[in-house]
Design brief:
With about 525 residues, the protein is α/β, with parallel strands linked by helices. It is built from twelve helices and 14 strands. It is elongated, with a radius of gyration of 34 Å.
């Protein structure tokens, strides 16, 4: 019997073994729970960090531009942008953040770099890699001595490269302030003289600001700049040129070439008047002293005693403010200037147009060249001084924005001198400029082409659109109401509305009024900041 009882009752040693087994089982249970719980925590923190690093990479890419002081890539701005985004997303456990680009000296980063950046710069991309390291603290795995784990997350952000086309007014008005006088004939405003001395005003001030604008916005090697002028460019003091808009520089990566081109722009320099009554504007000299640009062919006809000749006085070859022609050339620049391989569909296409007055010249299409050899200049604008109010001006009527086409129905016109009735087209230089703006803004799918316009000087705010004295402008101004000119209706349309009928998703720019060249610098800075917000992808 005693033996039987001893076999039934457990020994003390066996009871101790059970406690040990239970303890190990408990540790295993905690480990299993910890593995599930802390692994889930680890995955949550990884996902949170990944989203934050993605955002940080995009923020860093937005700063892919030159340092204003050194001209080199502004890596400090990129790092600060990445850190700010991580802090904004409350990633407190991050202990190490690095930002890399293809520009890193000695770095081998095939994911970020074009293998042929010099021979094939069109494929250079603004890629920025952000890497963050963080420690994730555990709750249950601490029992096993595992207090935390390190996670590393990388992400690549891209900023759009910029293709920038500068459209610069080089008409005769860009020399009207050389001697300080704003209006009237002035011997000091001779474009031949000021072009040689490189002091034509306000063009010289415009060039200085444009140089700073390009140097602060464009990261050379990735971004490109094209320069288009309103008129051909003279190469010497005696070089007479035509009024045709000119692509002085196709889209270029080269910093020295771009800055040299801008710095050497010249005011329109037509021939000197010689009494030949040849078509086109000429420079009038009286007593050997420069007087003013002059439409010799028109003045000769309008001063003729024969009313039949006076009635046919045609000024269409003289005006040179061909805004539409510049916008048409901008389309060519974005298309590769005749080489489709030079077109970059994935870049941000931006145009900045600066003009000192309304459109009064145009470039006829090949189909219209015979009918309108000097551009679209309706006969009812030729003898504007004899027309009733509101009076038109050469090659533009008093009603901007009719948006006709050259093929629209003809209307009856009575010549005020001869009384002859004829059928004419009312399609004018401003209608042409609006059409070219529509085509430019909508030439790229998606966000289209962003166009900024700047109206410089008194000529853009001289008259209201209907020819009556100026009233409160419809263009918003932080400084309050001011007079609004006919040119501003065109510039506002180009910047804010052009192309909407063709592409409703266009990311429009803005119109700015610069009463003088002193305000230009601030305007260009605003445009640069605005462009910078559009380059992230």
């Amino acid at each position: 019997m005693k033996t039987l009882v001893r076999n039934i009752v457990p020994q003390k040693s066996e009871r101790g073994q059970a406690i040990v087994l239970i303890a190990f089982a408990f540790i295993g249970l905690v480990a299993a729970v910890g593995l599930v719980t802390d692994t889930g925590l680890l995955m949550i923190e990884y996902g949170k960090l990944k989203r934050s690093v993605d955002a940080a990479a995009v923020a860093a890419a937005q700063e892919f531009r030159p340092d204003p002081d050194t001209g080199s890539l502004n890596t400090t701005a990129m790092e600060n942008a990445a850190l700010s985004m991580l802090q904004l997303n409350q990633n407190q456990n991050v202990r190490d953040v690095t930002v890399h680009t293809c520009e890193d000296t000695g770095a081998n980063r095939p994911a970020l770099c074009n293998p042929n950046p010099v021979t094939d710069p069109v494929n250079n991309r603004k890629l920025v890699e952000v890497t963050a390291v963080a420690d994730v603290g555990f709750a249950f795995l601490r029992v096993l001595g595992i207090e935390s784990a390190e996670i590393t997350v990388s992400s690549i952000g891209e900023a759009a490269t910029i293709d920038l086309v500068l459209l610069v007014d080089t008409s005769g008005s860009m020399a009207y302030q050389t001697s300080g006088s704003l209006t009237g004939p002035d011997p000091g405003d001779n474009p031949i003289t000021c072009n040689t001395a490189d002091n034509c005003q306000p063009l010289r001030a415009v060039k200085d600001v444009a140089l700073d604008f390009v140097d602060s916005l464009i990261y050379f090697g990735y971004d490109r700049v094209s320069v288009i002028t309103m008129t051909q460019q003279a190469s010497g003091a005696g070089d007479a040129v035509l009024r045709d808009p000119t692509e002085v520089l196709p889209l270029s990566f080269d910093r020295d070439t771009i800055l040299f081109t801008i710095d050497n722009l010249k005011v329109f320099q037509p021939r000197v008047c010689d009494g030949s009554n040849a078509p086109g504007e000429c420079l009038q000299f009286i007593g050997g002293s420069y007087n003013t640009p002059y439409c010799e062919i028109f003045q000769s006809a309008i001063g003729d005693p024969d009313p039949g000749i006076r009635a046919t006085a045609d000024p269409s070859s003289c005006p040179s403010s061909n805004i539409g022609g510049m916008l048409k050339l901008a389309q060519r620049s974005f298309s590769g200037s005749g080489n489709a391989n030079n077109q970059r569909l994935d870049s941000l296409w931006v145009t900045v147009l600066l003009a000192s007055g309304p459109a009064n010249a145009s470039t006829p299409s090949d189909a219209d060249l015979v009918t309108y050899p000097n551009g679209y200049c309706p006969q009812n604008t030729w003898l504007f001084f004899a027309m009733p109010d509101p009076k038109p001006k050469w090659c533009r009527d008093a009603y901007p924005g009719n948006e006709r086409s050259p093929s629209s129905s003809l209307v009856a016109y009575t010549n005020p001198i001869s009384g002859q009735v004829m059928d004419i087209s009312l399609y004018d230089a401003e209608d042409y400029a609006r059409d070219m703006a529509d085509n430019l803004a909508a030439m790229k799918t998606g966000n289209g082409v962003t166009i900024y316009t700047i109206g410089l000087g008194e000529s853009v705010a001289s008259l209201q659109a209907n020819g009556t004295p100026a009233v409160t402008c419809t263009v918003e101004e932080s400084s309050g109401p001011r007079p609004c000119g006919e040119a501003e209706y065109l510039f506002t349309y180009i910047a804010r509305e052009a192309g909407d009928a063709l592409n409703p998703t266009i990311n429009h720019g803005e119109y700015f009024y610069a009463p003088n060249n002193v305000t230009l610098r601030n305007i260009f800075e605003i445009i640069a900041q605005n462009i910078a917000t559009k380059i992230s992808q």
